Amino acid sequence: MQFDVFSLFPEVFDSYLNTSILKRAQETKALEVFTHNIRDWTTDKHHTTDDTPYGGGGGMVMKPEPVFAAIEGVLGAPPVCPVILLSPQGRLFTQKVAFELAEHAHLALLCGRYESLDERIRQYLVSDTISIGDYVLTGGELPALIIIDAVTRLLPGVLGDPEAIYDDSHATGLLEYPHFTRPPEFRGWGIPQILLSGNHAEITRWRRQESLRRTLLHRPDLLAKADLNQDDLAFLADLGYSPNAQPNPSTHQE
């Protein structure tokens, strides 16, 4: 899969992209990431990419000319792949959206900066807008890295265990179950004996129930959209959960 990233600060990507899973994915050609400095497409000696907003107000606005020139210079006009703007005004990035994006062979990510960008970029160049959450960052570089990371993990051959992506938190609409490793006892704290039993059916059942328990405790809002069977509902009912009840914000812990 190929990502083309357009940014005013492409140097921030190097360290993270050359570490761990993302580095290995690039070595095996499962992932290709090309970063492009929007300033390279400016035409003035100061490499100006922003200007004051029409109508007044604080902050600066990214100019349309260098952004259009950069993206069309690399991807053509119209662009050969979806162009995604990272913005707090976009649709929320979720694991479901990550699976959706992983279906593409080529994506472009546009990292905004300053107060905003000229609306004509959003109207006539961008094909999708994605937000990683209800908060504001200095720029779109961190959201772009998050999307690259989350999507890359879903690509065939990237993870050692191809089934691992289906156990991750949010992959099935639930939070992931607890994990334990050696030693079996640490400072007097043991591990659930079921994990030592060798009974894989019971271990699977335990893990499912612990996912349900953890989701109810930390993110009860997810249960309303999760794919729950009758056994799940019965287990949750024993824990006091009612499908028609409103989530209790006091149980939502970060």
What is the CA–CA distance across the termini? 32 Å
Low-confidence stretches: 249-254
Task: State the CATH topology of the largest domain.
Answer: Alpha/beta knot
Question: How many beta-strand segments?
Answer: 8
Main β sheet profile? 5 strands, parallel
Count of all domains? 2
CATH class identity of the largest domain? Alpha Beta
Helix content: 25-40%
β-strand percent reads 5-15%
CATH architecture of the largest domain: 3-Layer(aba) Sandwich
Please state the CA-atom Rg, rounded to the nearest Å: 23 Å
Label the overall shape: elongated
Helices, by number, come to 8
Mean pLDDT, nearest integer? 92
Q: How would you spell out the order of helices and strands?
A: EHHEEEHEHEEHEHHH
SSE class? alpha/beta
Largest sheet strand order: 2-1-6-5-8
CATH homologous superfamily grouping of the largest domain: SPOUT methyltransferase, trefoil knot domain
